[in-house]
Write a structure and sequence with these properties.
The complex is a heterodimer of chains A (289) and B (147).
Chain A: H1 2-35, H2 45-55, H3 65-84, H4 89-108, H5 113-144, H6 164-177, H7 194-197, H8 205-228, H9 236-258, H10 264-288
Chain B: E1 9-14, H1 20-29, E2 41-43, E3 51-55, E4 58-59, H2 63-72, E5 78-82, H3 84-88, E6 98-100, E7 110-112, H4 119-146
Classes of the chains: A mainly alpha (289), B alpha/beta (147).
Chain lengths: 289, 147
C-alpha cells in the first residue's frame, strides 16, 4: 500500500513539480528584475531556456555527466514523491541529499578545474546544511510523534508551535539549499564567469537542462517542507501552509538580491552555529517539556 | 519562432579592442537596455552561449583564444563582429601585429560596423543573428532526423 502510494506520489511529483517549479523560477526572475529596477523576462523564460538547451547539440567532456544528472533527477523525484505522498520526512531528506551527491559527481566527472572547484564548494554546502536538516526532522518527530508527514493532518495544533527555533534554523539553511546569494558558492544564477559558474561550467545542452529541471523540483520540495510546519487538521491550514511557503520563498529572493556572496568558511561556521543553537535548544526544550 | 531565438545566451570577448566597443556591448547588455526582457543573458561560459560577440581585431596573440572560444561553443551558434576593428581590422588593419577582422580566425555571421559601434547597431545585429541562429537550429534538427 505505502509503496504504491509513494510510486503514485513520485510520478505525480515528476509531472507537476517541474510545472510549478518552472513558473516559480520565472516569477523569481521577474521579481528579481523588478527589485533591480528592470522589467525582466517573460514568466515562461525558464521553460524557453530549457527547451533551447534540449535542442542544442550533444557535447560532453566525460560522457557520464548526463547519466549522473539523470540519476539526480530520478532521486529528486523520489524525494518529492515520498514527501508529498505523506511519507517519511527523514527519508525524503536523505534521498534529496543523494540527488545532491549525484550532482556533485556529475561536476567532478569532467575533471575541469572550474567544475572541480564548484563540486568542492557544493560538497561544503552539503556539509553546511545537512546538520540543520537532520535536526529539523528530529524536532518534527518530537513534536508530531512520528516522521510521517501525513500525520500533520491528525494534529490538534501545527508543528510550528513547538518548533519555532528549528524553523528559523531551517529558513537559514534554505538559502544554502536553494543556492541563493549569499550562499551561491557552487554555482550562481546571476554571475556567469567560470569560477562562480562552478559545478555547471562543463555542462551544456541536455545535461544543463537537467540541472535546471532538478532545481525547479528542489524548490517545490523545499517549499513543501516549509509549508509542512503550518499544517494541521483542516483544509484551511493547507492554504496557510502554501501562503507561508510562498512568503518564505519571497524572503529568499529578497535576501538573494540584497547580500553579497560570502566565503565558504563563513557559510560553514554560521550554518553549524545556527544548527547547534536553534536545533539544539529546540530539541532540549522538547525533551524537557 | 523556435526556442533557439527565445533564449539567446551571449558570450562577449574583447580580442584587441580599444574598449570603446566593449563599453557599448556592455551598455546594450546592462540593465539600462534590459535585454533580459528577450531572454538574453550575458554568460561567461562558451559552453552555455549561443551568440559570440567579438570586439576588436584579431592578432597573433589572441587568434588561438578566439578559435578556442568558438570551438567550445555548442551548435547551433552564431558569431557577431562588433565594431569596425572586428569587421576588417579598422584603423589598425596595417599594424605589424594585426591579422585583420575576426573572419580571419572564425566564420562570422553578422557584421556590425562603427567606431565605436552604437548599442542600436549591436541590438540590430543581434536580432539579425537570431534569424541565422533559428535557421542553423532548424538545419541541425534536420541533420539529426536524417542521421
Amino acid at each position: 500500500m505505502s509503496f504504491i502510494t509513494t510510486l503514485i506520489g513520485t510520478i505525480a511529483f515528476a509531472i507537476l513539480a517541474p510545472i510549478v517549479g518552472c513558473l516559480l523560477a520565472g516569477l523569481d526572475r521577474i521579481i528579481s528584475a523588478r527589485m533591480q529596477g528592470r522589467v525582466g523576462p517573460p514568466i515562461l523564460q525558464p521553460y524557453y531556456d530549457v527547451r533551447k538547451l534540449i535542442a542544442k547539440d550533444n557535447v560532453t567532456v566525460s560522457g557520464v555527466d548526463g547519466v549522473y544528472m539523470s540519476a539526480a533527477l530520478v532521486f529528486t523525484a523520489f524525494a518529492g514523491g515520498i514527501f508529498f505522498s505523506g511519507g517519511n520526512l527523514l527519508m525524503s531528506a536523505f534521498i534529496i541529499t543523494m540527488a545532491g551527491l549525484f550532482f556533485i559527481m556529475a561536476a567532478y566527472s569532467s575533471r575541469s578545474p572550474y567544475a572541480e572547484l564548484g563540486a568542492g564548494r557544493e560538497t561544503v554546502q552539503v556539509m553546511s546544511y545537512e546538520p540543520m536538516v537532520l535536526l529539523m526532522a528530529v524536532c518534527f518527530y518530537m513534536a508530531a510523534g512520528t516522521f510521517n508527514v501525513s500525520s500533520v493532518f491528525g494534529l490538534s495544533a501545527p508543528v510550528i508551535l513547538y518548533t519555532i527555533p528549528a524553523f528559523i534554523g531551517f529558513l537559514f539553511i534554505l538559502t544554502i539549499k536553494l543556492r541563493k546569494s549569499p550562499f551561491d558558492l557552487s554555482t550562481s544564477h546571476h554571475a556567469h564567469q567560470e569560477l562562480v559558474r562552478g559545478t555547471t561550467t562543463e555542462m551544456s545542452g541536455k545535461t544543463l537542462a537537467k540541472v535546471e529541471v532538478m532545481h525547479w523540483c528542489e524548490t517545490v520540495l523545499f517549499l513543501g517542507w516549509t509549508g509542512m510546519f503550518f499544517i494541521w487538521g483542516g483544509p484551511l491550514s493547507l492554504i496557510l501552509g502554501i501562503v507561508v511557503a510562498l512568503a518564505a520563498w519571497f524572503f529568499e529572493i529578497w535576501i538573494d538580491n540584497n547580500f553579497a556572496r560570502v566565503k565558504w568558511q563563513a557559510m560553514l561556521r554560521s550554518a553549524w552555529t545556527v544548527a547547534l543553537v536553534c536545533g539544539g535548544i529546540n530539541i532540549i526544550v522538547l525533551m524537557l517539556v | 519562432m523556435g526556442y533557439a531565438s527565445k533564449s539567446p545566451w551571449v558570450i562577449h570577448y574583447d580580442a584587441s579592442s580599444c574598449n570603446g566597443c566593449d563599453i557599448e556591448v556592455l551598455a546594450a547588455l546592462c540593465p539600462g537596455f534590459d535585454v533580459e526582457r528577450f531572454g538574453i543573458i550575458n554568460t561567461g561560459n562558451p559552453k552555455h552561449a549561443d551568440i559570440f560577440l567579438v570586439t576588436g581585431s584579431v592578432n597573433e596573440r589572441n587568434i588561438s583564444v578566439v578559435k578556442q572560444i568558438y570551438d567550445q561553443m555548442v551548435e547551433p551558434k552564431v558569431v557577431v563582429a562588433c565594431g569596425i576593428c572586428a569587421c576588417t581590422g579598422g584603423i589598425f588593419h596595417d599594424c605589424y601585429n594585426v591579422i585583420g577582422g575576426v573572419d580571419k580566425a572564425i566564420p562570422v555571421d553578422v557584421y556590425a560596423p562603427g567606431c565605436a559601434v552604437r548599442p542600436e547597431a549591436i541590438i540590430d545585429a543581434v536580432v539579425q543573428a537570431l534569424g541565422i541562429l533559428e535557421e542553423k537550429s532548424k538545419a541541425l534538427k534536420e541533420s539529426k532526423k536524417g542521421a
